[in-house]
Amino acid sequence: MKNLILGTAGHIDHGKTSLVRALTGIDTDRLKEEKARGITIELGFAHLELSGDIRFGIIDVPGHEKFVRSMVAGVGGMDIVMLVIAADEGIMPQTREHMDILRLLGVKNGLVALTKCDMVDREWLELVTEEVREFVSGSFLENAPIVPVSSRTAEGLDVLKTVLTRLANDVAEKRREGYFRLPVDRVFTMTGFGTVVTGTLLSGEITVGDELELLPSGREGRVRGIQAHGSKVEKGLAGQRLAVNLQGVALDQVRRGDVVVPRNLFQTTRAVDVRLDHLSTAPRELKHRTSVQLHSATYEVQAQVILLDRDSIQPGDSTYAQLRLAEPVLLNSGDSYILRIASPATTIGGGVVLDPFPPRRRRRSEEAVMLLESLESQEHQRVCALIIGQSKLSGISFEDILLRSGIARKAAETALAVLLSTGDILQMTREPRMFLSRDSFDSLKNGLVDEVSSFLASNPLKHGMGKEELKTRLPKRSDLRFFTPILSALERDGLVIPERDIVMLAGQAVRTTASLEELTSAVSSFLREKALEPPTIKELMERFHFDEKSVRDNIAILIRNGDAVRISSDLFYASEVLDGLREKLIHHLREKEEITPPEYRELTGLSRKFLIPLLEHFDSEKVTIRVGDKRVLRKRL
């Protein structure tokens, strides 16, 4: 069974609802107010099965100018439109506005139904037909069938069904690959079932038991049941009108304009880059920063028009723009939209979403225009390269590339494979897959080399820079996971030498000047000379006329080379002196089994200033263990 959506469009009182009732036997005016006033206010729904396994879900839209917002909500999922024009009145204002909306929202297939043909004579009918043919010239309905019908006498209904069957055979069903997306156009509750939403499934398949999310609110639930065309089903397919029973979602937690999607897969946005077509019938030019009402699928939201390459756009012109939205909404690349203004209440333009997650654009940015041109022309390889390049040092994930570009997964994989093979981009991480442009990668590499060079210039006695410290020097907007592949590339290029926990510049070991090398030797000699009463850092600074940092860096080299040992923050012993003190202590304990601080002072001649820190140091070395006021030898010795 081929499932398609057939929608009506046209001026008020031109017989849209009557024609649907004549075709299907279903009255789509369900509200008391609609029956009392004799006009359609909200969307109406019916279904029609034709020979050849064709099943239409029918959306009947209101024709009154006050209810254009409801009309737009019904257009989004239409596969075929039936433009309804009364033969006794011909082209009317809402006929024109509805036609503009259909064009802007990308409807490609349809026919014209000339209703009330029983109310005019043959000559008048021919004149109206000619008027209609002229009206649709240059539009998607230019070569469409024009079918005279009468809902009252049933004249022309069989011809209309034949035409619908032929059109249906030529129209492809909506894509069933990808994830389900159901814009909500109606919400109600049923006793014993709870909250039910209806809508046209735009893509994918939805199954009983699926976990779902309502956007933009983010509320989560589960699919409890599904109906398609009045019958209970286990699975809903793209292109079907569906009623979905939501489990875990209260009636007041969902509204028309929400979108039912799989959990944790889609994101809302507050700005979109678009192709904007300003209608030739618009009442005036559209200026930069104009506030408008954006309609897409079943929702509407206030938006501000940011013109990227000019200060205003004249009626009949097209351009690229960014629409900044007052509230977060779900808009995907390729989605159609229309723009309306309040005074006078009219449709002024619309177009298609090109980038649903753009950066905040600088006006008159050539970079932005290049990307949008590529997105519009669907040059997949160029689009991927531009999106990755414009992500700068932050990089971008594979899933975000799909979201921004609207490129199908397989096509994106192919485009990225080519770019990877040429070296124009690099894959930085495996999960999630993150990509950087070659220019950004080289920039990060050069930045890390500069950081190491700068660090060593400020720390001339150090071999290199600590890896963890270097990692923190990546730009904040970059990703710390990029550090390892960048460091590996620098090592392959022979620019750095990673060694355990430090990173050295290639060809540079310890960076010492002649004077500092002399200081190293002098400090070492001085520590040995002072022996049991080594100098403090301050004393070393005064003796050798160096700042504290240089002295401490120098001692760090002696410690690393095994020439000195740190006892406390300000006490350092020459290694050979400390070895002698340790041996005296061990020899005494092997003979006497224990020693007190006074006994150790008598044994070594140390003053109390050095005695206690040394004993605590030997405790920390696990040479001795303190028992009360005494030290005893560790058993292992």
Keywords:
Rossmann fold; Elongation Factor Tu (Ef-tu), domain 3; eight-stranded antiparallel β-sheet; 637 residues; 29% strand; six-stranded mixed β-sheet; alpha+beta; 19 helices
Describe the structure.
By secondary structure, this protein is an alpha+beta fold. It has four domains: 2-170, Rossmann fold (3-Layer(aba) Sandwich); 182-262, Elongation Factor Tu (Ef-tu), domain 3 (Beta Barrel), CATH 2.40.30.10; 269-355, Elongation Factor Tu (Ef-tu), domain 3; 525-637, Winged helix-like DNA-binding domain superfamily/Winged helix DNA-binding domain (Arc Repressor Mutant, subunit A). It has 19 helices and 35 strands. The strands form nine sheets. Strands 7, 8, 9, 11, 12, 13, 15 and 16 form an eight-stranded antiparallel beta sheet that branches. Strand 34 and strand 35 form a beta hairpin. Helix 14 packs across helix 16.
CATH topology of the largest domain: Rossmann fold
- CATH architecture of the largest domain, please? 3-Layer(aba) Sandwich
Largest β sheet strand count, sense and barrel closure: 8 strands, antiparallel
Content of β-strand: 25-35%
- N/C terminus separation: 88 Å
> What percent of residues adopt helix (DSSP H or I)?
25-40%
CATH class of the largest domain: Alpha Beta
Low-confidence stretches: 34-41, 509-514
Mean pLDDT: 87
Brief write-up:
The chain is α+β, with helices and mostly antiparallel strands. A hairpin with a 4-residue loop joins strand 23 and strand 24 (346-355).
Structural topology:
Elements: E1 2-9, H1 16-24, H2 32-37, E2 44-50, E3 54-60, H3 68-75, E4 80-86, H4 93-104, E5 110-115, H5 122-135, E6 146-148, H6 157-170, E7 182-183, E8 186-190, E9 194-200, E10 205-207, E11 211-215, E12 219-228, E13 231-233, E14 235-237, E15 241-247, E16 259-262, E17 269-278, E18 286-287, E19 291-296, E20 299-307, E21 312-313, E22 318-329, E23 336-341, E24 346-355, H7 366-377, H8 380-390, E25 396-397, H9 398-405, H10 409-422, E26 425-429, E27 434-437, H11 438-458, E28 465-466, H12 467-471, H13 483-492, E29 496-499, E30 502-505, H14 514-530, H15 537-544, H16 548-560, E31 564-568, E32 571-574, H17 575-592, E33 594-595, H18 597-604, H19 608-620, E34 624-627, E35 630-633
Parallel strand pairs: 1-3, 1-4, 4-5, 5-6
Antiparallel strand pairs: 2-3, 7-16, 8-9, 9-15, 10-14, 11-12, 11-16, 12-13, 12-15, 17-22, 17-24, 18-21, 19-20, 19-23, 20-22, 23-24, 25-27, 26-27, 28-30, 29-30, 31-32, 33-35, 34-35
